[in-house]
Amino acid sequence: MTATATLARLKRMMPEHIKPKFSTAEELMAWQREQGEIDSKRIADENRVTRLNKIMGRSGISPLHQECTFDNYQATNAEQQKALHKAKKYAEEFGQSFGGFIFSGNPGTGKNHLASAIGNYIIQNGKSILIATLPDLMMKVRDTYQKDAKTTESKLIDDLCEVDLLVLDDVGVQRENKNEELIIFQVVDRRLANKKPVGILTNLKFDELGRVLGERVIDRLRMGNPTTINFTWQSHRRLVK
Ligand SMILES: Nc1ncnc2c1ncn2[C@@H]1O[C@H](COP(=O)(O)OP(=O)(O)OP(=O)(O)O)[C@@H](O)[C@H]1O
Ligand SMILES: [Mg+2]
């Protein structure tokens, strides 16, 4: 049925006192198009959440950090203000370059807070993010070696490469293990080759990262001019009563 015919039928069915929502066929068609776009966005959002759930059994940002935004990050000194500004800029410019970020520094200083704020920002723009600790990720990899595993190692690596932004958290606490090193290399190498950024959260200093991740990984992370922030101030956890 044409939009004009649909409109005529709707007008006939409608009681006199109700003003129709659309008075022209163009308006009706525009409305239908809009609804179609809303529906396809909803389906895309659902698919994204399902995919992320499949990888870690949860959404991309852990429950503790889901409320973290740039607005509720307290920047009381110049260094924190600079960190906040850099993180915000990264989120605003996400997608323009494939550079990732390295947030390095003391515990409780807000590395996850700002990474999650970036995530919460880019999600609004239809992008996907997964923040996963390396130990958790490696556990998921080991799970795939079980007899009754639901997925394979290579499928898991594919999934990790598909997310728009992958953030590797707690880098430096993992055991030295050749297989784990190789998996991290594969993920980082494939993502950067496909111009997809990787973020790193770590308590290690920049120069110590190479020892843990290997120089070949560091070399790739340096691609695309990554944002680096040194979190040098004291823990915010101590301030929370
Ligand atoms: N400047 C800040 N303003 C508001 N909340 C903050 C700030 N810094 C940290 N927090 C809060 O403190 C808690 C700890 O911060 P976060 O998890 O980001 O630390 P982290 O740097 O990742 O530490 P770790 O190295 O131990 O993982 C979080 O709940 C976070 O929201
Ligand atoms: Mg952290």
Automatic annotation (TrEMBL):
<protein>
    <submittedName>
        <fullName>DNA replication protein DnaC</fullName>
    </submittedName>
</protein>
<feature type="domain" description="AAA+ ATPase">
    <location>
        <begin position="97"/>
        <end position="227"/>
    </location>
</feature>
<dbReference type="InterPro" id="IPR002611">
    <property type="entry name" value="IstB_ATP-bd"/>
</dbReference>
<dbReference type="GO" id="GO:0006260">
    <property type="term" value="P:DNA replication"/>
</dbReference>
<dbReference type="Pfam" id="PF01695">
    <property type="entry name" value="IstB_IS21"/>
</dbReference>
<dbReference type="GO" id="GO:0005524">
    <property type="term" value="F:ATP binding"/>
</dbReference>
<dbReference type="InterPro" id="IPR027417">
    <property type="entry name" value="P-loop_NTPase"/>
</dbReference>
<dbReference type="InterPro" id="IPR003593">
    <property type="entry name" value="AAA+_ATPase"/>
</dbReference>
<dbReference type="InterPro" id="IPR028350">
    <property type="entry name" value="DNAC/IstB-like"/>
</dbReference>
